[in-house]
């Protein structure tokens, strides 16, 4: 039994490991995304979005971001963690590790969950087709529409899905919390840099986070449901990594 400052993890562990609780979280995320996308589509958020983006630039020169000289370059480095090349390399590396460890079914599931999440992002972008911010110059290149943020959504899908997978190998709750916290932090940092670089509105990033979280939670529920029904997957999950 946990004692001291880690006692709260017992309640956390129960909440995030029960399928019903996870499904309720998925439903909350979906409803939140629908409400946000409706506001964005009607233009209700446009004014506050533009104000926030402009506030991150110097008044005398909108092409110059606020903060020390090194912050913009750091933001470009961090934002690359949510780009397709980096996320693809991470996903392939993890799937390769699972194949080497003879966890073939788990590798296929991780690849399928990530790939379909990426397809979902493309569908949502084409559905809303929101233009990129034009109130300030962009500090990095862009290739698609704005809502929801692909970097925010794909980093949430990839890092949280892989974080949930790694957390299954950890026995201590505090280790699980650490892994999931790092995954969440990476997604948050990537999303914040998109606004700082002027290539996304805050609501684009918020929509990406919510959609990505919903997908990763849904994948977690699906993984546990399949594992309960598949003796081979249960055996694979219990097998030590050699």
Automatic annotation (TrEMBL):
InterPro entries assigned to the protein according to its UniProt record, in alphabetical order: PAP2/HPO, PAP2/HPO_sf
Range of residues in the leader sequence: none
Keywords: Membrane, Transmembrane, Transmembrane helix
Transmembrane segments: 78-101, 108-128, 148-170, 177-199, 205-226
Phosphatidic acid phosphatase type 2/haloperoxidase domain location: 106-220
SUPFAM superfamilies in UniProt: Acid phosphatase/Vanadium-dependent haloperoxidase
Domain of life of the organism encoding this protein: Bacteria
PROSITE patterns cross-referenced by the UniProt entry: PROKAR_LIPOPROTEIN (PS51257)
The name this protein goes by in its record: Phosphatase PAP2 family protein
The organism of origin for this protein: Corallococcus terminator
């Amino acid at each position: 039994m946990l004692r001291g400052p880690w006692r709260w993890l017992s309640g956390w562990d129960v909440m995030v490991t029960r399928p019903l609780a996870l499904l309720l979280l998925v439903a909350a995320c979906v409803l939140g995304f629908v409400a946000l996308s409706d506001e964005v589509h009607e233009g209700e958020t446009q004014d506050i979005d533009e104000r926030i983006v402009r506030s991150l630039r110097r008044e005398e020169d909108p092409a110059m971001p606020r903060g020390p000289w090194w912050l913009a370059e750091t933001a470009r480095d961090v934002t690359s963690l949510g780009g397709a090349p980096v996320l693809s390399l991470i996903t392939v590396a993890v799937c390769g590790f699972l194949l080497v460890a003879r966890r073939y079914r788990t590798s296929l599931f991780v690849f399928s969950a990530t790939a379909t999440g990426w397809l979902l992002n493309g569908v949502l972008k084409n559905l809303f087709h929101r233009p990129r911010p034009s109130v300030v110059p962009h500090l990095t290149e862009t290739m698609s529409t704005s809502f929801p943020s692909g970097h925010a959504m794909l980093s949430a899908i990839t890092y949280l899905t892989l974080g949930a997978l790694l957390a299954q190998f950890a026995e201590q709750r505090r280790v699980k919390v650490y892994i999931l916290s790092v995954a969440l932090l990476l997604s948050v940092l990537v999303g914040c840099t998109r606004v700082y670089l002027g290539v996304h509105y805050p609501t684009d990033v918020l929509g990406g986070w919510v959609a990505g979280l919903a997908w990763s939670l849904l994948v977690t529920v699906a993984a546990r449901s399949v594992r309960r029904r598949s003796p081979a997957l249960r055996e694979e999950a219990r097998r030590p990594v050699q």
